[in-house]
Amino acid sequence: TDITGLGNADMLKIQLDALKRYLHLAIVHHQERMIIIHGLGKGVLRDEVHKVLKCTPQIRLFTNEWQGQYGFGATEVYFKY
Questions:
Q1: CB-based contacts of 19, cutoff 8 Å, min separation 6
Q2: Which residues pair with residue 79 across a beta bridge?
Q3: Residue 72, CA distances (Å) to 3, 36, 37, 59, 68 in order
Q4: Residue 18 scores a pLDDT above 80
Q5: pLDDT > 90: what percent of the chain?
Q6: Residue closest to 35 by CA, chosen among 48, 47, 49
Q7: Please, what is the average pLDDT of the chain?
Q8: Residue scoring higher pLDDT (53 or 67)
Q9: What is the pTM of this model?
Q10: 64 with 75: CB under 8 angstroms?
């Protein structure tokens, strides 16, 4: 995706659309868990990711705890089926 000339809101929409697509695939394929890398920054993307996760009934739990490889820049998601 070419993001040249896009504003922050447009880039956020692209990122959230990708999140929703991959969440759907994880659920369809009954994945146990997944890690969503959102980076640190100001926390805007992380907060929006967490809003989507809270509204997804197939998610049992998600955590944004320190992980050696990603620090606090990733959220781990556990699914329920």
A1: 36, 49, 52
A2: 59
A3: 25, 11, 9, 20, 9
A4: yes
A5: 89
A6: 49
A7: 95
A8: 53
A9: 0.91
A10: yes
- Give the phi and the psi of residue 63 in degrees, each rounded to 5: -135, 145
Give the tokens for residue 59. Answer: 């998610």
Which amino acid would we find at residue 5? Answer: G
State residue 1's pLDDT score. 65
How far is residue 38's CA from residue 77's CA, in Å, rounded to a whole number? 13
What DSSP line would sit under 37-74, residue for residue? E--STTSHHHHHHHHHHHT-TTEEEEE---BTTTBTSE
Query: Coil, strand or helix: which one is 30?
Result: coil
Amino acid code (one letter) for 40: L
Q: What angle do CA 36, 66, 56 make, to 5 degrees?
A: 35
User: Do residues 59 and 27 make contact, with C-beta atoms less than 8 angstroms apart?
Assistant: no
